[in-house]
Amino acid sequence: MELQGFGHLLISGAWITIQLAICSLFVGLLFGILGATAKLSSSKIAQAIGNGYTLFVRGMPELLLVLTIYFGSSAVLMAIASIFGYDEYIELSPFIAGVIALSIAFGAYATEVFRGAIQEIPKGQREAAMALGMTRFQTFRRITLPQVWRIALPGLGNLFLVLLKDTALVSVIGLNELMRQTSVAVGNTKEPFTFYFAAAMVYLFMTSISMAGLYFLERYANRGYHGARA
Amino acid sequence: MSWEWDVIIEHFPRLLQGAWLTLELVLLSGFAGLMLAIPLALMRVSHRPWLKAIPFGYIFFFRGTPLLIQIFLVYYGASQFEIIKNSALWPILREPYWCAIITFAMHTAAYIAEILRGAIQSIPKGEIEAARALGMSYPLMLRRIILPRAFGIMMPAYGNEVILMLKGSALASTITLLDLTGMARTIIARTYTPLEVFLAAGVIYLIISALIIFLFRYLEKRFNHHQHWPNEKPKDLDPQH
Q1: Cβ pair B198:A64 closer than 8 A
Q2: Which among A70, A69, A57 is positioned nearest to A159, based on CA atoms?
Q3: Which of A146, A225, B98, B121 is 20 to 30 A from A36 (CA-CA)?
C-alpha cells in the first residue's frame, strides 16, 4: 500500500487515539463504579439518579453525546463562571470534550457490568466484614472491589473495545486523532479508499492487541480459580 | 444561560422528519443485515475450515473497525475506482442514502451473524437429531427446525443489536444525510441553541428505543409461543437441560 509519505500522520493520529481511549477508560471506570454504587444504594434518590443516567445515556447515540458535550458545554461553563464574575468566552478543547463524552458513555454501560458483578459476590462476605467491625467503605474497598474486578473483567473488556472504536467519533469535533488525520491525508492525495483502508487496518491492529491483552488479564485475574467454578 | 422552549417547539416538526429518516435507515438496513447474516452464520457453524474462514474474516473486519470508517470507505472510497464509477452501481453508490444503508446492513450483519451462530449452537441437539431421524433434508430442517428455533433464542440479543444500530445510524449525518442527528445539527447551525435541540433529539432517540424494546418483547413472545403456556411454564420438560 502506497501511503505517499502520510504514514507518520496516521501514526501521530493513532497515538492521540490511544491517549483518548486510555483517559476515557479511567474516567469511565470511575463513572461506572459511582453509577453502580448509586444503583445499589438504599437511598431512593441515588437509585433514581443511577437509573436515569443509564437509561438516558444508553438510549442516546454516542455521536449526539459527543456533539452535545462539545457544543453545549460552553453555555453551561460560561453560566457557571459568570456567577463567579468571569465573563470571558470559555470553550472545552476537543480532547477534554471527547474524554468527557466517551467516559460518560462508557460509564453508563460499565454501571451495569459493575452492578452485576457486585451482586454476584456472596452476601455472607459482606456480613462477615461487618461482623469484624469494618465500616461500609472499608468493606467496599477491602472485600467487594478486589473481587469485582475479576468478575467484571470480561464485560469491561468488551466495553473497552467499543470505546476504542467510538474514539473515531471525536474526529467530528476536530480532534486530530487517527480518523481525522486520515481525512487530512485523503484531502491531499484524493485516494480515499487507500487511506481509509489503511486506517481501518490500524484500528484492527489496535483492537487485536487489546483483545490479546484482555485475554492475559483475564487469565491473570482468574489464576486462583482453576476449576473452582463449574 | 437561558433555556429556549420556543426553539424546540418551532423546530419539532423538522426533528420528527429527521426521526422518520432514522427509522427508515434502521428498518431497511436491519432487514437487509438479517438476510445477509443468515448465510454468514450458517457458514460459520459449518465443519469445513475453508467455509468457516470467509465469515470469520468478514466478522473480524466489521467488528474490529469503527462504523465511521466503514461508512467513509463506502461513501468516499468507492469513488477512487474508475471501474465502479463507470459501472451500473454508480448511481446507487453516489447517493449517501444508499451508501448509509449498505454500510449499516453490512455492519449489523457481522454482529447478527455472531448472535445467530450462538443461537444455532444452543439449539438442543436432540431436536436436530429428531429432525434427522424423521428423514428431513438439510434445507427442510433449516426452514422448519433450525431457523425458527434460532430466531426465538436470539430475539433478546437481536433487540439489543437493533438499538445499537439505532444509535449507530446517527453517523449517517456525517455523510450529509438529514437524519435525526443531521437535522438537529442543521437547526443548531441556524439558531445556535445546542443544548436545547440536542437534548430534544436525545429524547426522541430514547422514545424510539423504548418502542423497539416493546416490539421485541412482543416478538419474543410470538417466537417462543411454545414456552409461554397460559398458566405456568413447565419445568424440566426437556431432558437435554
Answers
A1: yes
A2: A57
A3: A225
End-to-end CA distance of chain A: 49
Q: Which of B66, B77, B171 sits opposite A203 (nearest CB)?
A: B66
Residue B229 has pLDDT above 60, yes or no: no
Among all chains, which residue has been given the C-alpha cell 485475554? A215
The domain segmentation of chain B, as residue ranges, is: 7-225
State how far residue B135 is from chain A, nearest Cα, in angstroms: 37
Percent of chain B scored above 70 by pLDDT? Answer: 93
DSSP string, B167-192: HHGGGGGGGT--SHHHHHHHHHHHH-
Centre a 10 Å sphere on the Cβ of residue A22 and count the other Cβ atoms it contains: 14
H helices then E strands: how many in chain A?
9, 0
Question: Rounded to two decimals, what is the model's pTM?
Answer: 0.89
CATH hierarchy code of domain B7-225: 1.10.3720.10
ipTM of the complex: 0.89
Angstrom distance (rounded) from CA A18 to CA A163 = 11
The third-level CATH classification (topology) of the domain covering A7-221 is MetI-like fold (1.10.3720)
How far apart CA B172 and CA B96 sit, in angstroms, is 8
State the Cα–Cα distance between residues A118 and A122, nearest whole angstrom: 9
pLDDT tens for residues B133-145?
A: 999 999 999 999 9
